[in-house]
Amino acid sequence: MRARVPGAVRKVEPGPGGGVIRFARSELRVLVAVNGAVFWGWDGAGPEPSYALAGACPEPDPRAELEPDTDGGWRVVAERVTVAVSRHGALEVLTPGGVTLRRDLPPRWWEAEDGGPARWMQRSEVPADARFFGPGGPVEGPRPRDGAHRMGNGVTGTGSAAPVTMPVQLVVADAGTHLLFVDNPWDGTLTLREGAEGAGSGHDRVGTSELRMEGGPVRGWVMAGTPARVLLTWASLAGAPALPPAWAFGHHHVREGAGGEDEVRRVVAGHLERGLPLDAVHLGDGHLDGGRAFTVDQDRFPKLPVLADELRREGVRLVSVVPAAVRAEDRRGEGVFPDLPDARVRYAGQAARGFAGVWHTVDGSVPFGRADALCLGRAAHEGLRDEVPADERPLVLSPSGWPGSQRYGGVWSGEGAVGWPGLRASLARVVGLGLCGVPFSGPDVVGGGRDGGCELYVRRLQLAAYLPLLRTGAVGPADGGPWEHGAAVLGHARVALGERRRLLPYFVTLAHLARRTGAPMVRPVWWPAPEERELRDCEDAFLLGDALLVAPVLEPGAVRREVRLPRGRWYDTATGRAYEGPAKVLVDAPLERIPVFARAGAVLPVRAEDGGTELEVWAPAPGRSGGGLVVPESGDDGDGPEAERYSVTRSGPRVVVRRETEDGAQEPSRPVRVRGLDGTGAQM
């Protein structure tokens, strides 16, 4: 079967922001929107309808026009990007200075003989120095390896939902950063091959990306700029991330057992009595009547709302599991799949049962796709939002998703791969999802007895303590907590969970900023300096916001590890020792902690011993300055309070912290603790 290709240009119809270019056997629509994003669609495909878009397609840029280019091609010149289309249909995205960011070759279609969906393929080229990031799925690192990657969210052969794999690709090169979103929910395969620079001009090998889809439209969006600009533009298209409630950044414990209300009380008491902070208990299928969604087993949970109120007074919320399929009694227990694309579908009654949120699972018998996951999240979020008190926000977690899912909640990625490779993969998934616009995610931390022992469990917990979502699971047959591994593990868990509790105000601030800017909470170390090539290859550390660099231990038996530090001064938060970057440093990593570094001049809101919020300030280098933003927790579901902006200056041994307001600099209204001057904290 021969493939159909566009052919040569026959006619051009300019329009606002671009226009339509008609070829011999196809047509291409190009649109540059006012936010700088570029839309392209073949064979009549337009930007709408789309599950991914938060609203209507943004208005076209009135200053961008389709004009003739060289060799019979056409181009659209905009403020942030230039789009060039050759006379045979290759589409090139260039910087305003004319440097190529990507080149998409003309697509090819294979028409079905029975008139069904046409399979299609598109090959793309990027500069030799470019590196691919994303797609937020089951890859070995935040930078996917050369080879084929499945683009799909179907149910796996094991009967569980496949991890999130979004058709979003972030490409970082010397020329700039750009994001590609292919708006097609069909299954497909993405094959990547990174480029290589040769010795001298003309010897470079470009990077390639080949996408093969089983059907669906050939359309997508491209946005270019700095990483922060790219994610801001992406958020303006796909929607701002939902703002989880403040308690969602605490410690969640998943209880899958079939015990009743007293068993839940026992688990909660076990944590609190041992000094382990606990903020939520997630009830699994064991609390449902016959596994039916929304139907609580009344024998084991006769007074669920009373239990929920009791736990809430102790600072613990209840979260219910919801299978995607709803069992119907009139169909002999058969699973019924709701019409999720119908925007009228809502969850009802969960808040009345005492639940503050829901987490989804997918039954292997249910035909569950990527757009279905988004619609399921929408049904849960909007249903709970209508029921919870006005000063609260609901929590929705899903194992699968599609661009736009972040508008309704976060992603839990389950236990993932076993063993130490699974630990590394769980970090990669969180980083990748953040670059795809999903800032709130995390793996489940389960007992390591079956795949690595106590050491692996401790390292998992230490990593998760610095990720947006921290969920632990049963570590033994008693369905309890870390104490089941003995006193040593309990001590390490107490330290990790205690540090997580201390950083809660910082996590809340990062969540507010993610909602407003689209910036991920967990970022690759190259985020502030993508031009530094060596940082692009760093996959064993990450930035938490712009203040902390976290270097988890990902190998068994390690008590020291090498850490690559970006430019500037960094403090080891455990010892207070200062290091000057860029550099590779070898630091201690005993079993009781992992290396964490604070950026000089950073301002972190942290939980004080009295339960309030204080500012932890890391001294700038002599003669330098710093600062940071703090967003206090807000109970409403709007944009929240204004960010508090702080500046930090240093003159000799004196560090001055000021709050910057419209009325000028003022003394901070919060307690301030300066660190980094002498290796210890000094109260101000």
TrEMBL record:
Residues 518-604 form the Glycosyl hydrolase family 31 C-terminal domain. SUPFAM superfamilies: (Trans)glycosidases (SSF51445), Glycosyl hydrolase domain (SSF51011). Gene3D superfamilies: Glycosidases (3.20.20.80), Golgi alpha-mannosidase II (2.60.40.1180). InterPro entries: GH, Glyco_hydro_31_C, Glyco_hydro_31_TIM, Glyco_hydro_b. Residues 241-333, 377-510 form the Glycoside hydrolase family 31 TIM barrel domain. Keywords: Glycosidase, Hydrolase. GO terms for molecular function: hydrolase activity. It holds the Pfam family Glyco_hydro_31_3rd. Residues 620-684 are annotated as: Disordered. Belongs to the glycosyl hydrolase 31 family. This is Glycosyl hydrolase. It comes from Streptomyces variabilis.
